[in-house]
Amino acid sequence: MENLITEGRYDQVTTELSREIVQAVKKGIKRYTTKIKLFSRTFVDIVVYFKYDDNQGVDISAATYLDPKNQFPRQQFKNKRIIFHVGVPASQELRNREMNVIIYELKNTIRHEIEHVAQSKFKDRQRKNFFSPSRSYPETLTYAEYLSEPYEVEAWVRGMYKKAKTLKQPLNVILNDFWDYLSETDLSDQEINGIKELYIDYAKKHLSQGYLNKGTKVVPLRTYGYQENINEEIVGFRPSYMKPEINVVVHFEVHEQNENLKNIIKDILERNKITVNSITGGGKSNNYRLDLNLFNEREVNNLVDDLHRILMVNDIRIHNVTSSIK
Q1: Is 28 helix (H, G, I), strand (E, B) or coil?
Q2: Three-state SS for 65?
């Protein structure tokens, strides 16, 4: 239970910080600073540098430092800072189009760095001289060795797991994308296979598994979709063999029309793996009607929350939202 509470706290901080950074992106801010409270006595300074360029895709990186200026040597591990570099398109239209990518990549990176802050707090998870003010690696450390370091394995997997949950996908899918990326580097097949083994082993030991016997009926807190057949072990993913039981109609209105609204709605429903019977609305009408199959009433409430949150990020505000079970 303690692990679940801690993980929930990390996820909450990740979500709140990602929202702040997204708002800064929408305003075109070049530098943003804030502070997060991770534990009762652990505050982390956040500095975000933004680069706006239409010729580059979404590019997000970060690093964690502990008292980077070494001003308080007697307070080791108490003064922490995460510095983010966020590259996004300069065009507001392109930024809005890429907003979902920005959000899940932000959550991936934020959760990764939060794990490093947690590692610095607990001495049994530290390596001598690693959590130093300069946070520098040995010059001889190779990329394969870096990715294989226990604290990096933990941070990478936790970050990708947060990304998987944001996208409502199995961690396997995100890991496969990572393996594809590694195959384009100078790493050998042997090194990549070694990294795969470490990451999958960590995930199996610390994350929920979705390998269920045929006939098992499980509906998770946030449904990740009905799976007709599962022939392989699914890491960090809890599917359901129970088919959606209720037919729901969701109505809502928008103040201003957006030609991409239907595509955005379809993307939200697809990411939630929701069965769609029909979507009507748009054109000259500001009214929309979604005919869907869902698991239960809780899922209806979750979907309405997602519609409000995600559409607001895209500068679309909905109102007069109603739902009814047919």
Answers
A1: coil
A2: strand
Give the span between the Cα atoms of 262 and 307, in whole angstroms.
12
User: 172 lies in a domain?
Assistant: yes
- Tokens standing for 103? 């959000």
Residue 92 belongs to domain spanning: 2-195
Domain of 320, CATH number, reads 3.30.70.600
pLDDT digits (tens, 9 = 90+) for 122-134: 554 445 444 444 4
Angle at which helices 189-206 and 171-183 cross, to 10°: 160
Per the domain annotation, does 39 fall within a domain? yes
pTM of the model: 0.65
Q: For the residues of 103-158, what is the DSSP string, one character each? A: HHHHHHHHHHHHHHHHHHHSGGG--TTTSSTT----TT--HHHHHHSHHHHHHHHH
Q: What is the pLDDT of residues 221-267, one digit of tens each?
A: 344 445 555 555 556 555 555 567 789 999 999 887 777 888 888 88
Q: How far apart are CA 155 and CA 62, in angstroms?
A: 12
Shared-domain flag, residues 159 and 24:
yes
Please report whether residue 217 resides in a domain: no
